[in-house]
Specification:
The chain has 329 residues and is of the alpha+beta class. It folds into four domains: 45 residues, no CATH class; 87 residues, no CATH class; 53 residues, no CATH class; 124 residues, 2-Layer Sandwich (BirA Bifunctional Protein, domain 2), CATH 3.30.930.10. The chain contains ten helices and eleven strands. The strands form three sheets. Strands 6, 7, 8, 9, 10 and 11 form a six-stranded mixed sheet that branches.
């Protein structure tokens, strides 16, 4: 029997609830004070890397919570008020901030995150949505020894639950991000089921980040990615390099269908209100040794190459490659 349902709050939980209720045949109305294009869900929407497995009601949170309640931008802002229901809730929340509760909650939170990933895959496949959905895992950077200690302990809990998590040293971070001055003590990294979507940017690459309003062309991220790939394929053709795509693996490849497939250009884009960000990294004179320290773009068992290697020369004119890529873009 169809029902009329009103959902208060258009965040990620409200929207997903509306989606599944509508699929069951109900009439759904969402009420929200905003245009649903800002706030926590706009930044964290579908933040499904199963790293945040420790519940909010954990030991020590009440002490932090007293500070958070005075800051409307905090992770747990509840407007203080003299209200009996509010006081009852506060006492109940404080009672649940114990180790036993955390131990019981972790497996459930982990399972919800992993099942939510599957549901996101279903929504994207069934509805042909063009929302930006990446599988990159999560890198937690820590600026203090105390915070690093806490994050490492959380990563250990995650490993005990079967998640692929590890501590990353400052030296390893420098390899991952050689051009970024990171003021950190260390980090933890939570991978996903295909190994972590990490890539490398450094000297010898042409990195192009086109900023376009796709509403002036077409509102389709996948189509935009195919256009970028085609621009790089045409650029490489100028040098006699037969580049192509690889099914299910974004970017530009050489040797697809041979025993030695190799990636020459990595790609990753996102859009905010259809204005594009990020783009491509084409290896022209890149030091391929850096890729030995990572799993490039999370794809195991496939090599990375560079234009100078394919041409058998020491160095390619990067300015020339830039100008050709601009023509084809």
């Amino acid at each position: 029997m169809s029902k009329k349902v009103i959902i208060i709050g258009g965040g990620i939980i409200g929207l997903c609830s509306a989606y599944y209720l509508q699929k069951e045949g109900h009439q759904v109305t969402i009420i929200d004070q905003s245009n649903m294009d800002g706030g926590a869900s706009y930044v964290n929407a579908g933040y499904l890397s199963p790293s945040h497995i420790v519940p909010l009601s954990a030991p020590g949170v009440m002490k932090k919570g007293l500070k958070w309640m005075l800051n409307s931008a905090s992770p747990l802002y509840i407007k203080p008020r003299l209200d009996s229901d509010f006081l009852k809730w506060t006492l109940a929340f404080n009672k649940s901030c114990n180790t036993n509760h955390v131990t019981k909650a972790i497996p459930a939170i982990k399972d919800i995150s992993l099942m939510s990933q599957d549901l996101y895959d279903d929504i994207k496949r069934d509805e042909s949505f063009t929302f930006h959905y990446e599988k990159k895992g999560l890198l937690m950077l820590c600026q203090t020894e105390k915070m690093l200690e806490e994050e490492v302990e959380t990563a250990r809990l995650a490993k005990r639950e079967g998640l692929d998590a590890e501590e990353i040293s400052v030296k390893e971070l420098e390899v991952l991000e050689p051009n970024v001055n990171l003021n950190v003590k260390g980090a933890t990294f939570y991978k996903i089921n295909r190994g972590g979507d990490i890539t490398y940017h450094g000297p010898g690459q042409i990195v192009g980040y086109p900023i376009l309003d796709l509403e002036n062309f077409f509102t389709d991220i996948h189509k935009y990615l195919r256009f970028l790939e085609e621009a790089i394929i045409l650029t490489l053709a100028e040098y006699g390099i037969p580049a192509t795509r690889s099914d299910g693996e974004t970017g530009v490849w050489l040797g697809v269908g041979t025993p030695f497939p190799r990636k020459i250009c990595a790609m990753g884009v996102r859009a905010s209100r259809w204005v594009t960000m990020h783009g491509f990294a084409l290896n022209v004179n890149a030091d391929l040794g850096y890729f030995d320290n990572i799993i490039p773009c999370g794809i195991k068992g496939k090599a990375v190459t560079s234009l100078n290697v394919e041409l058998g020369v020491e160095k390619v004119n990067e300015q020339e490659v830039k100008e050709l890529s601009l023509i084809h873009i």
